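Protein fold
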Amino acid sequence: MERVFQGARLSQDPAAQPVVDYLVGQESDLGLLDAVLYYDFPLFRDTENELHRSYLLLASRSHGVVLLHVSGSHGRPPDVKGIRGKDDQIVQLHSIIFGMLLKSKILRSGLREIKPRMTGVLFTPNVEDPELLKELGLASESACSFEALSQAISRNRQGAPLSDTEWAEFRAIIEGAKGLIRPRERAVPDGDPDSPAAILAELESEIATFDLDQRRAAMFIVDGPQRIRGLAGSGKTVVLAYKAAHLHLNNPDADVLVTFYTKSLYGFVKRLITRFFRQYVDHDPDWDRIHILHGWGGRNIDGVYHRACLDANISPITFRAAQQARGRQPFEYVCRKLLDTGRVHARYDYTLIDEAQDFPPAFYRLCFELTHGGDVDRSVVWAYDELQNIFNVQIRSPREAFGVTEGDQPIIDLDRAQEATGGYGMHDIVLHRCYRNPREILLTAHALGFGIYGDTIVQTLQDEDHWKDVGYELLDGVLEPGAEVVFRRPEENSPLSISERVAKESIVKGDSFSDMNAEVEWICREIRSFVDGGLRPDDLMVVCLDDGAARGYFEAIATNLQEGDLQVNNVLASPYSGTGFIVEEAITLTTVYRAKGNEAAVVFAAGVDALRPRRRSRSGRSKLFTAFTRAKGWLRVSGTKPGADTFLREIEQAMHNVPDLRFTCPDPEQVETLQRDLSGRFGEIESFIRRMEQLDMLEEAEEFLRARSSKTE
C-alpha cells in the first residue's frame, strides 16, 4: 500500500495512527496491496473560502474511494456533537470530490454517475452500542470496531476494477496533477502514429502525472528543512511549484518565497503555481502572499537580495561594484556584506529555492535568516540539481551550504529534522527518474560530459551511492582507480517510451562537414523534416557551441529557413535576456548560456568542432552536457571537420554501449591535477562567464567570447 501523507502530523495524531497501522497490517487480507492511503490530504476551499481537509482517504482500483474519519478513542465516552461534526465533514468532502470526478470524461458514467465507487465511513471505537449511531441518522457508514471497518471497506468493492487509464485519471485529479502543463495540439500527418508529432504527444502525456518520488516531495508539507535532489528534467521545479500552491492553500496568510537562479523561469513558475492552486479552489492565488523572486534582482526585476536590502534600509550593491571584490563571487560577496550588517529580518514563513546548486553559501544563509523560525531547522526547501554542470559534482552538505551556529552546530541538519518529526518526515528526497531526456540522450550527455570515451576523463562521481542517486546501477567491477566498471541506467529511471518507438540511431544523430555552409544546409534540412512530421517550429532549438561564430550560424540558418516560410527567434538579436525565450511558431536560435533551464523536443547542437581544443577541460565538456540535455526527444550534433569527428566518434561509442556506461576508473587526484593545469589556460574565460551568470549578463559574456574567437576571422 502506498502512503501519501501531507505532513508529519500523523506522529501527533493518536486517533489516526491505529487506523493507519491496521490498514497497512491488513492490506493483503483486505486486497489493498495496490491501494493508496492519503492522510491529511487532499484539501479544498469552498466558495466561502472555508478549508475542507480529507482526514483519511483510501483508494484503489478494486475498492474505489473510501473517505474515513475517526471520532473518539477507546476509554472515552461518545461525543455526539463531535460524531455529527465528523459526519458532516465526510459528506462535504464526498460532495466536492464527487463533483471533481464527475467533470472527467474518462471517469464519468452517464449523466450523474462516476466509475469509482465512493463511500464514507466514520470509525467510532468508543461507541459500544451501534444503535446509538443509528439513532443519530448519520449519512456515513459507521464502524465501531476494526472488524466492522474491514467489512465497510469490502462492501465498497468495485464491480469491475478501474482500468490503467481510469486509475491514472483518478490520481491526477485527486493529487492535482491536472495542473501540469498539458500536451500541445499538433497536426499528425495522415494520422501516422510513428510521426514525430504523434510520438511527442505521447511523450508529453507520459510526463503529465506524478511518480511516487515526486508525490512524496510535492505533497509533504514540511515543518522544518527539506532537500530535493535529482537530475535536470526530474521535475524539481514542478514539485516546488506544487508545494508553493499547497502551502498557500493550507495557510493563505503565510508568506511563501519562491526563488530561482534563471530569470526566464519566472513566468513558468507563476503559471504552474496558478494551475496547481486552481485545481482545488476557483480563484487565483494571492500574489501578495506568494513571492516569486529572482535570486539577486535589481532595478528592472525584483529579487531576494534586492528586496532584503530595501527592507533593511540598505542600498543594494551593484554588480559592477561587486566585481571589484577580489577572491569572491559577486553574489557571494553582496549577500555576505548584507548579512554582516546584522539588519536582515525574517519576513517569510516558508522559503523554496530552485536551482540551488547555482547559488553560493551566503545566499543559503540569507534565505535562512529571511525565514521565520527558531535558531535552527527553519522551513527552507531547496531543490538541488545533480550534475547541472560537470564543474563540480560534489554534493554540498547542509552544513556547508547554510553554515553553523556560534556553538558550531549546523544551522540546518536533515537528520535532526527527521528525528523531530518522529520519523514521519521526508526531509531528504532523491528524484531518480529523468523525464526530460530519453535514455539514449542522457547517456550520451553523461558520456561526453565526463569524457568517458575521449582520451581523458575530466570528472568522476564521488562513490557508488552518488551514481545511484543520479539513476545508475553498478553492473560490473569496483570503483577503484584502474578498474574496469560498467554502470547501467535502468529503464524505469528513464521511462520515456520514445526509446521503444524509435531506433536509437534516429534519436541521436550527428554529422561533420567541410565548411559551415554545408553544416547549416544539413541542419535546415533536418529542421524541415521534423516540421513536415508535424512538430511546431517552437518545438525546435538550435544551440550554437561556437560562441565566436554564433551570429554567423544564426544569420545563415535564418536566411535558409525563411526562404521556406519558417520563422526563427534569434535570442542573440533580442534586446534583452529576460523572460521571453520561446516564441510561438518560431525556431529558437540560442547559445548554451541562454539555453540553460530551457528545453525543446529537438535540439541541434551546432559548431561542436569549436570545443575540440577544450575537450580535456570541464568547461568545454560542460557545454556539451548542457546543450545535449536540453533535448526532450531528439538530438542532432554537427560541426566541421576534423574537429567535429572527435566528438562524433565518442557519440558513436556511447550509443553502441546504451544502456551502459563502460570505462576505466580514473584516479580522482590525477583528474583534479589535470583540471588545475588546464584551468590556467581557460581560467579567464571561466571566471568571466561565472561572474556574468550572476546577473544573467549573458550579452556581455557572449561579446567577450566572440572577441576571443578566431574562427570567423
